[in-house]
Amino acid sequence: MKYQDYEDIANRMKEDAFHANCNISVLVEDIYDEEFWRLIIENTKPNLRNKIYFPSYMNKQGTRGKPILKNFKNFVDEKFIICIDSDCEYLYDQDVWYIADFIYHTVVYSKENFQCNYFSLNEICKSLTTKNYDFQSLLENISRIVSPLFYVWLYFKEIKYNDFDHLINNQAFATVLNFEDSQFNSIRDDNILFQSIQDKVNDILEKLKNVMDDGWYDSIIIDGIPNIQNRLIEQYSIRPEDTLSFCCGHSVLDNFVEPFMKKLITILKNLKIQEVKQALSDDKNIEDKIISIEKMANQDIKTKLNNSFIYLVYNSQSKQMEEIKQKLAREINYYLSA
Predict the structure, then answer these.
(1) 77: DSSP letter
(2) What are the pLDDT digits (tens) for 149-178?
(3) What is the secondary structure of 283-321 as a DSSP string?
(4) Which region, left, alpha or beta, applies to residue 237 given φ > 0 means left and ψ of -120 to 50 means alpha?
(5) Strands 103-105 and 52-53: what pairing?
């Protein structure tokens, strides 16, 4: 379509919002993203509650996505905004199109990364087992382990070199984080888990080394990775222990967090039952108590994780979430602030 066509569609979306008694149109990549962005916007601008319009515009294939939304970047304003996953493109492309007023991105790789935040995961854990788990240490340790792979991925993205995309890609992160390959049967098995991930990272890096010139590979390890690490810290305060927030969100959520949570909840549930049996051994109602523990822990983990970002919307526990909200607060000021 022509530039004028997209401008006409953008204006039509604004008109549709007006006729729907809404104050703002919000373009998102997929219908499943609407709830995520709606809650963030309403939390930042409470007067927009029930006043947000999500246009149903799609291309001829029936899909949306960043390439489609990009066509509307020149028409955004306080009444018409775009909200997308960053895919961390801004970390290696200074001219990425979505760094602009009235266009909002997740800062982390995608909204799925917010579903993997340590604070949210512990809240879920408490709700299902009444027990805490140190998710922060867990995720930070894993982040440090996978960080070399992440830095190598960024290195090739920065220099626009794709000959090794078959080795360093989202599937590589999914493979490294695949929890099903791990032997984790006790809350004391975290070192076994870490070693399993480390071995898989080493395997991918070894495969990369075998297809590269030795001098080039060594220069990346000795100079390239430290330079990227220092740049991320200086420009974005992204430390090695933050890496998982900037890896492909689906890889982190689907391959590690969800199966790990299922296993952990089972372990903690069994520990809780053991504690009850010891403490209430003479209580005739002990079976009812155990049934209650089982029922509480058997709630659907996937559903819990799908909504876990809500904890971050309403609690200032994520720097990246707060960054999104601060940008919205600065820019959406028109009659919307009244």
Answers:
(1) B
(2) 999 999 999 999 999 999 999 999 999 999
(3) -TTHHHHHHHHHHHHTS-HHHHHHTTTHHHHHSS--HHH
(4) left
(5) unpaired
Q: Terminus-to-terminus CA distance in the chain, angstroms?
A: 37
Q: Are 323 and 107 in contact (CB under 8 A)?
A: yes
Can you read off the two tokens belonging to residue 91?
């970390």
pLDDT of residue 179: 96
Cα→Cα distances 304→108, 131, 247, 266, 293, Å: 20, 16, 21, 15, 17
Q: Rounded to whole angstroms, how far apart are CA atoms 257 and 260?
A: 5
Q: What CA–CA distance (Å, rounded) separates 176 from 113?
A: 16
Task: Read off the pTM.
Answer: 0.92
Any idea what DSSP says for residue 187?
T
Residues 275-326: pLDDT tens digits? 888 887 777 788 888 889 999 999 999 999 999 999 999 998 999 999 999 9
